[in-house]
Amino acid sequence: MIDFHGYGPSIFQGAILTIEIAFLSLFLAVTLGLLGAIAKISKNRIANGIATLYTTLIRGVPDLVLMLLIFFGGQMLMNSFTDMLYDKFEIDIFININEFIAGVITIGFIFGAYMAETFRGAFQSVDNGQIEAGKAYGMSQTQIFKRIMFPQMMRHALPGLGNNWMVLLKTTALVSIIGLADMVRLASEAAKAVHEPFTFFIPVAAVYLLLTALSELVMKKLEIRYSAGVVKG
Amino acid sequence: MESLIALLEQNEIFNPQTLLHYWDGLVMTVQLVFLSLVVGALISVPLAVLRSSDNPWISKPIWVYTYIFRGTPLLIQLYIIYYGVVYIEGIQDSMFWPVVKDAFYPCLLAFVLNTAAYTTEILRGAIATTPKGEIEAAKAYGMSWGKMIRRIVLPSAFRRALPAYGNEVIFMLHASAIASVVTIVDLTGAARDIYAQHYAPFEAYTFVAAIYLCLTFGLIYLFKYLEKKMLAHLRPLS
């Protein structure tokens, strides 16, 4: 067994934190992505413009820069906001942006842009005749969305969604840079303390590898489930 | 224009000194990304050809390499190489020490290995979709394996790989920001220095984000142009 010099349990805690961040930001990203995709295919020009701006800006800037911007810059903005509240209304509060929230929001925000593009493509590949058929059956807009659009959209979106999830999972390593005690940060601190980088980084890399391998398996299962009813050539 | 100069003279952050620092960072980022892409691409071509081999003893080891490097974060790979290289037995006395002492080369090595793994898989996908008829035709002409790969398989695979490779280039540009973590002063590192100096994170990082945005758009435009040129034969008529 590898000797972790007593750092084993804390790195395990860090691994759980990594998974927490990954799932929370996935949830945020999917929500933002669906909203963005709906805005992009809508005929409302303002919604369309905002969504296009969002996806192009976010996808053009490195995730680390965005994370630093939101973490450090967001705190400054928040401080000047609370200062203003104090000056104008004598309300004395202090809002602290902690690393966990900054991390989740940034990753969710970044991948929301990628998800929006994935979902937009998927929505557009749903056959128009199907929607017309739904209308002909007298379904309401929400019924059409829930029963026809969404299940078929998911089929087209799944490969892209799976890809985005894998990239997201690996991006969570960046939260260690803004000071969050995830497994990467704990491992690097331990590695510096006992001067054994390989003992700590290689197991952490293995955990990431395990997570991506597991995700691949789940994606395969989901793809089979969502392609029910597709005639294979 | 005059108002812009006035603005530059008034504010404390974007003075000539910091702009020069950003410029140095830009040069470093471009150097790192360009070198790692060139070396990575050179490595990935033979790897992709071998990866497409029917012999599992040849293709599987390369699959393991690409799987590991694509399944773990680049940050971890960078840490392993950057912190690990010091602990290689006897490296401090060897002739490599002056090279690896600097953060630049370990970082470049991590980037090269990472991008080579992704590029290998992109190329493998392109090689796998080579039309069967082309290979049969090459064989019918009596071409040797090497000649067939060189003249038939690779040229068309490169073209088909172009859109995915464009994404990889942009991904690499964005990933290079983590070089700043290991003391390299690239664009992000320059922004961090300026933030620390003036305590103006918002301005420092927004400016650098704008530079990255311009670089990304430049690359997107370049690859759109290349695709139009190289993939002209695949464009639908009309």
Explain the layout of strands and helices:
The complex is a heterodimer of chains A (233) and B (238).
Chain A: H1 8-41, H2 45-60, H3 63-89, H4 99-124, H5 128-136, H6 141-171, H7 183-194, H8 197-226
Helix pairs in contact in A: 1-2, 1-4, 1-7, 2-4, 3-4, 4-6, 5-6, 6-8, 7-8
Chain B: H1 2-10, H2 16-51, H3 56-71, H4 74-84, H5 97-101, H6 104-128, H7 132-140, H8 145-175, H9 187-198, H10 201-230
Helix pairs in contact in B: 2-3, 2-6, 2-8, 2-9, 3-6, 4-6, 6-8, 7-8, 8-10, 9-10
Descriptive account of the structure:
The complex is a heterodimer of chains A (233) and B (238). Chain A is an all-alpha fold and 233 residues long. Chain A has one domain: Orthogonal Bundle (MetI-like fold). Chain A has eight helices and no strands. Chain B is mainly α. Chain B has a single domain, classed as MetI-like (MetI-like fold, Orthogonal Bundle), CATH 1.10.3720.10. Helix content of chain B is 77%, strand content 0%. Chain B is built from ten helices and no strands. Chain B is flat, with a radius of gyration of 22 Å. Chain B starts with a helix and ends in an 8-residue tail after the last helix. The model of chain B has no long low-confidence stretch (mean pLDDT 88). The chains are: A mainly alpha (233), B mainly alpha (238). Chain A binds chain B through residues 57, 59-66, 68-69, 72-73, 75-77, 166, 170-174, 176-177, 184, 188, 191-192, 195-198, 201-202, 204-205, 208-209, 212-213, and chain B through 67-68, 71-77, 79-80, 83-84, 87, 173-178, 180-181, 188, 191-192, 195, 201-202, 205-206, 208-209, 212-213, 216-217. Chain B: It is a multi-pass membrane protein. Chain B: The chain crosses the membrane at residues 26-50, 62-83, 103-123, 169-192, 204-223. Chain B: Belongs to the binding-protein-dependent transport system permease family. HisMQ subfamily. Chain B: It is found in: Cell inner membrane; Cell membrane. Chain B: Residues 26-223 form the ABC transmembrane type-1 domain.
